[in-house]
Amino acid sequence: MTLAPSQAGQAETAPPLLSVTNIEVIYNHVILVLKGVSLSVPEGGIVALLGANGAGKSTTLKSISNLLRVERGEVTKGSITYGGERIDQLTPNELVRRGVIQVMEGRHCFGHLTVEENLLTGAFIHGGKRRQIAEDLEKVYAYFPRLKERRSSQAGYTSGGEQQMTAIGRALMSRPKMILLDEPSMGLAPQLVEQIFEIVKSINEQEGVTILLAEQNTNVALRYARYGYILESGRVVMEGAADTLRNNEDVKEFYLGLGGEGRRSFRDVKQYRRRKRWLG
Amino acid sequence: MGPFLEVLLGGLLTGVLYSLVALGFVLIFKASGVFNFAQGAMVLFAALSMARLQEWMAPTLGWVAFPVALTLSALIMMALAFAIERLVLRQLINQEGIILFMATIGITFFLDGFGQTIWGSDIYEIDLFLSKDPIFLFEDVFPGGLLVDPYELMAAVIAGILVAVLAVFFQKTRVGRALRAVADDHQAAQSVGIPLNYIWLIVWTVAGLVALVAGMMWGAKLGVQFSIALVALKALPVLILGGFTSVPGAIIGGLIIGAGEKLAEVYVGSMFGGGIENWFAYVLALAFLLFRPQGLFGERIIERV
Ligand SMILES: Nc1ncnc2c1ncn2[C@@H]1O[C@H](COP(=O)(O)OP(=O)(O)OP(=O)(O)O)[C@@H](O)[C@H]1O
Ligand SMILES: [Mg+2]
Questions:
Q1: Half-sphere exposure of B20 (CA within 13 A, CB side)
Q2: What's the average pLDDT block by block, 10 residues per block, for chain B (305 residues)?
Q3: Atom 26 (ligand 1): residue with closest C-alpha?
Q4: pTM to 2 decimal places
Q5: I want to staple B47 with a disulfide (CB 3.0 to 4.6 A). Which of A53, B76, B219, B230 is the partner?
Q6: What is the mean pLDDT of chain A?
Q7: Do A92 and B177 touch (CB under 8 A)?
Q8: For residue A88, is it within any domain?
């Protein structure tokens, strides 16, 4: 089922910016959630991490950004390297300073702060560099003109789309090299989802920011990403170039909601799942 | 009219001190979700170090001993915040709230005991160089004017300045903004690179400095003694009234409790045979718990997706 990366056309020459090797994550010392996940993200790429509810997408992103500890999760096996260096033991603060920042699922804006104050918190690591921060703020407003209009509203009272923009804009303020973007489409109207993905794409192209994207919305994600991994109960069950995945019968059937030419009966589907479980 | 206003004013001025203690609680609770039982002990500890350092230096330095003792006490409170963050909070990161609360009880007993060991356990004085004579205000407006205790007036002025400085710090500075961000959402604050340890160090330092101001004013008025730690118990009804997360709530709650208990003592106390000043605040708090548990200014939780 797994397509070799080379076959999928991923650049083999340069070493990946981020590589996650065989990580295992346990919550509360007992709940094993990731059972050996490996993935790599090339510099300047957009890579999608796909899968159903509870597959482990957010957990994977949080193990990279080291936000697991707050939820009493722990990476117990495997390694994570970024730019050739191990980053498993770094604090989120150190990671943000190195350019790795996560935009969490559900936006997590600071509700009592204004939109602009939210954006400014993203520049915390840049301390008192006023000039740079003012420039970056204008840049964020250029990407999200809507935020400029809402700059002095309390973030808690803005719409879901505006909060998503605020969360992405806030991350941009840190001048990231890599954004771990968790489910930006969540709860947004299709048109808005499209708009946000367009902006993410231009951030990727113009700022050269590498993106690792976790999404349930496989359809949109595979249109914007160049490569994808599919996660099921804590394991990577499939990976490949975005086009390859989009045209794969199983992906069509399970994640894109296409019938796969009526080839499979419901029983086959169940068998497929059972096989997965056995293999896993 | 004159006597009523006098009682009211006296109550409000005492209330300012309650507000200061409550403010320390609120700061720490907002930023770290920890109910800091040790706030009262911090007030006592700060007052003790202030009193003893001043006493020790006064013979040689005269009035200069006051600013020097104040500065040293401030440094001591900072060192204390540093030690608490390093030795306690950092070790207990991500534990349940109740465990952190227990830890602050531990800190309370340590501070009470340790403070008295190094500073002594008598009654000490802090000299603010104020006259003990009451001052009269508004003599043109009322016959005889209003009688005011200069210590209380001073406390109110200092508290006002302190609150204004804190407001600017929270609203206008980068670290203040980060503090508010942490209060809103720990995990999100971490995700943008705000280090929680550093923020905790800051809030405990600020709470320590607020405790110093409260302890100094209280100590100057009543003498520095163990009972100061019990003032913190008065902060509880203030918090219930004002809400645990609201800075203006702590201030207004303190004023209401301060004024309320004095007025109640003077005007209805006789019906209960006096002494209601000691429990009035708690009854008021109880009534609030029944009818408005979030307090006067308890922050509304903004829920919106
Ligand atoms: N803090 C936690 N403690 C215990 N279990 C957790 C915790 N967080 C997540 N899990 C479990 O880990 C599994 C993976 O969760 P995760 O949030 O990574 O999934 P996901 O792929 O992001 O799902 P979704 O699409 O719903 O966001 C789930 O079974 C979830 O119940
Ligand atoms: Mg998720």
A1: 31
A2: 80 86 88 86 93 91 90 96 90 80 92 90 84 74 73 83 88 92 91 93 93 89 84 83 83 90 84 78 86 69 46
A3: A53
A4: 0.84
A5: B219
A6: 88
A7: no
A8: no
The Å distance, Cα A68 to ligand 1 centre, comes to 11
Contact between A73 and A33 under an 8 Å Cβ cutoff? The reply is yes
| CB A213, CB A48: distance < 8 Å | yes
Q: How many angstroms separate the CA of residue B86 from the nearest CA in chain A?
A: 16
Most confident residue range from A51-60, A262-271, B54-63: A51-60
Contacts of A157 in chain B (CB under 8 A): 302, 304
Domain-located, residue A68: no
- Whether residues B192 and A69 touch (CB distance < 8 A) is answered with no
**What is the extent of the structural domain holding A170?**
108-175
> Looking at chain A from residue 74 to 103, which residues have their Cβ under 8 Å from any Cβ of chain B?
91-93, 95-97, 101-103
Q: Per-residue confidence at A260, pLDDT binned at 50, 70, 90? A: very low
All structural domains of chain B, each given as residue ranges with its CATH number in brackets, are 2-291 (1.10.3470)
**Tokens (6 digits) for A180:** 């771990």
Residue A20 and residue A40 in contact, taking contact as beta carbons nearer than 8 Å: yes
Contact A156 B304 (CB under 8 A): yes
End-to-end CA, chain B: 53
Question: Helix or strand or coil: residue A45?
Answer: coil
